[in-house]
Design brief:
The strands form 2 sheets. The chain has a 5-stranded parallel β-sheet with strand order 4-5-6-7-8. Strands 1-2-3 form a 3-stranded parallel β-sheet. The chain is built from 17 helices and 8 strands. It is 49% helix and 9% strand. Strand 4, helix 9 and strand 5 form a beta-alpha-beta unit. It has 384 residues and is of the alpha/beta class. The N terminus is likely disordered.
């Protein structure tokens, strides 16, 4: 029986660490440089041969490796009335924001040129935050969802080898959301859903959303759980420290907590084939798995799970690399959830495609495992 991919990756990493004297590998990763074997003495024939073979291998890997990026944003000017006001509240220098907006609104020229320049074969497109979740009127949300999904489907149809897409759903009306989900997947060919954390303070573990989970499971598509630009409530611990709000910490804390609500709320016990994707290395949850398990039996819970919390992170959650270009974090995430559950993403245009692709190509993995992260897992999970 062939060795499981996760176990083989773990053994290769342990063997590599031992060969390099441990500290050399860890030190190399801390400096942002992958170390796959102990370095030979500088200037020696062994070192020159190693350098030459590494350069050849890297050149071949870069030339051949297909890259699919799965959290790549777009926008439709004017589709959401609240969008302009919310955009102005984003904490970023004005020049950077304007460049983001210019690239968000473009679905061909700038985007395809960026992909070509950096070797990205496919972007899986998703409608940018703030998203439909900020719309108050359910009927308006339904109309906007149809408009966005139709627009996205046309873009994918125009470039079917370069784009795929995640649908938006009008979750203000869960019954209408089920209908739109079915249409988006079966008629428009979209590959799943991206959802921005909460619908006006409501979370997806709540009973009214069970029909949506049932349809996601029936269709066999995933839901990408993405942070929301507008928080559901105010955390006093952030007072006076705007750096804590948003992408540096607040989004990770709230989106990760939402994912845990799905687990502790029994969503995956009721719908065991349902799944979510979490960006930013799983909103750090893979690194908390041991703690989640060790404390679970020591707290009160109205609903007892069928498995320990870590089980769901390994079986119902996919992790993407968006916005976390750290080999140490990637090694930890793969070790925690398995190489078959980690997918590459850039978070275009908010992150640099060049930096993200360089991080991916230099990751310390065997070619088969790197290919899984770069494209294989996305192709399997999303049916690309």
């Amino acid at each position: 029986m062939p060795e499981p991919r996760t176990e083989s990756t773990r053994r290769r990493f342990i063997a590599t660490t031992a060969a390099a004297g441990g500290a050399a590998v860890v030190g190399g990763l801390a400096a942002g440089q992958p170390a796959l074997a102990a370095e030979a003495a500088p200037g020696s024939r062994a070192s020159m041969a190693t350098a030459g073979s590494k350069a050849h291998r890297n050149a071949e890997k870069e030339k051949k490796m297909r890259i699919v990026a799965v959290e790549e944003a777009f926008a439709i000017p004017g589709a959401i009335r609240q969008e302009a006001a919310i955009r102005q509240r984003l904490e970023a220098p004005e020049a950077i924001k304007q460049e983001w907006f210019r690239r968000l609104d473009d679905l061909t020229d700038l985007r395809l040129a960026d992909m070509d320049a950096n070797g990205v074969d496919v972007q899986v497109l998703s409608y940018a935050t703030p998203g439909l979740e900020v719309i108050e009127d359910p009927a308006e949300a339904v109309a906007v969802a149809r408009r966005v999904n139709d627009h996205l489907a046309k873009a994918v149809a125009a470039h079917p080898k370069r784009f795929a897409g995640f649908a938006v759903l009008p979750l203000q009306d869960p019954k209408a959301a089920v209908v739109e989900l079915r249409r988006a997947v079966k008629e428009l060919g979209l590959k799943g859903v991206l959802y921005n954390d909460h619908v006006r303070g409501h979370y997806l573990d709540e009973p009214q959303f069970r029909p949506v989970w049932a349809e996601l499971e029936r269709l066999g598509v995933t839901l990408y759980l993405h942070p929301a630009a507008i928080p559901a409530d105010h955390w006093r611990v952030f007072d006076g420290y705007p750096v804590l709000v948003g992408p540096s910490w607040g989004w990770t804390a709230t989106t990760g907590a939402h994912a845990l609500r799905l687990i502790y709320g029994g969503v995956f016990d009721e719908f065991p084939r349902a799944s979510v994707m979490l960006g930013h290395m799983g909103e750090l949850l893979p690194f908390q798995m041991a703690r989640l398990d060790s404390r679970y039996d020591q707290v009160r819970a109205e609903r007892r799970l069928q498995h320990m919390p870590s089980y769901y992170l390994r079986n119902n959650v996919y992790v993407t690399t968006s916005g976390v270009m750290s080999h140490a974090a990637l090694l930890g995430a793969v070790h925690a959830v398995g190489v078959d559950r980690v997918l590459f993403s850039i978070d275009y245009p908010f992150e640099s495609s060049a930096e993200a692709v360089a991080f991916l190509r230099s990751a310390p993995y065997a070619p088969a495992d790197l290919a899984s992260i770069a494209h294989g897992n996305a192709e399997r999970v999303l049916g690309l």
